[in-house]
Amino acid sequence: MNNFDVEVFEEIRTLCLMALDAIETADRVLMGSRSAPPDNLANWTHEQLREYFDEGRKISVTVFRNVHSFISCCANISKLVWIDPRDRNSLRRHCGVDEPILVEIERKLEEIRLTLDLANNNTFHWKNRGIRNALAHYNVRLFALMAETGNMSSFRICTSDKIDDRALGTTAKSCMRTLVVDTGEYIFQGEAYNLDQMKQDVRTLLKLVLEKHPMLFVSW
Predict the structure, then answer these.
(1) Burial 50-77, CB ≥16 within 10 A → b, else e
(2) If you ran DSSP here, which 8-state letter would residue 137 be given?
(3) Which phi and psi (to 5°) does residue 26 adopt?
(4) Can you give the pTM of this predicted structure?
(5) Helical H segments across the chain, by residue range
(6) Pick from 119, 144, 109, 116: nearest CA to 13
(7) Residues forming beta bridges with residue 192, ordered by sequence position
(8) Residue 20 falls within a domain, yes or no?
(9) Is 149 contained in some domain?
(10) Does residue 177 contact residue 63 with C-beta atoms inside 8 Å?
(11) 190 in any annotated domain
(12) What is the domain range of residue 78?
């Protein structure tokens, strides 16, 4: 346990870098694809139309894959610094971690949270379990949406001016993933997350980690 805090800081650093790489990749792909559709689509052959829409789907898959990776990294940071009671039980029962060590782990994690000011300085609250539960109970949420709507789509990319009251209801209830590109809002399983704010929170967290342990600038 002597290097516990350094190792946790190193893992947070790694997750932050992975998160930022993922969301910046999604941003680049999205920005490179934002062009108006051709005016002459009506004159295209079936093969040309198929290739055009296939390319659009590939872009959507790349964007959402990277957004999902970003969300997963944020959720893992939360899981790393706040032990869920179920994780505590697993450590004790299945991994053989003794109670005194569990108490010491929790004490050290509390010190890390205080050092990084995780509970106070971030608009995206790192203790928020919503994002963790959405990923952990993915199948339950998916089946619930299917049962409720009967006509669910996997993903949608839109702008805020396209979301009126009726369309918003459709997005929240009938679409697994929606990205609102001009506001940076990501609606996942009906829950909205501000990606721009979360990205800034990750950058702030990474800065704090590197200030606390400057050697992590050069280690990998």
Answers:
(1) eeeeeeeeebbebbbebbbbbbbbbbbb
(2) T
(3) -60, -40
(4) 0.80
(5) 4-33, 46-81, 85-93, 99-116, 130-136, 138-149, 165-174, 195-212
(6) 116
(7) 187
(8) yes
(9) no
(10) no
(11) no
(12) 4-137+196-217
- CB atoms under 10 Å from CB of 110, counted, come to 12
Residue with the two structure tokens 């995206």: 124
Number of independent structural domains in the chain: 1
Q: Exposed, middle or buried: residue 177 (CB in 10 Å: 0-12, 13-18, 19+)?
A: buried
Q: pLDDT tens per residue, the chain (220 residues)?
A: 568 888 999 999 999 999 999 999 998 988 876 555 566 666 666 676 566 566 777 888 888 899 889 988 998 898 888 877 777 777 777 677 788 888 888 888 888 888 888 766 555 666 666 777 767 667 777 777 777 766 666 767 776 666 544 444 454 456 677 888 778 888 777 778 888 888 998 998 999 888 887 776 655 4
Q: What is the 3-state secondary structure (H, E, C) of 9-51?
A: HHHHHHHHHHHHHHHHHHHHHHHHHCCCCCCCHHHCCHHHHHH
Q: Are strands 175-180 and 153-158 parallel, antiparallel or unpaired?
A: parallel
Q: What angle do CA 177, 183, 32 make, to 5 degrees?
A: 80
Amino acid at 177: R
List of residues 6+ apart from 203 with CB closer than 8 A: 16, 20
Residue 97 inside a domain? The answer is yes
Residue showing tokens 């089946």 = 143
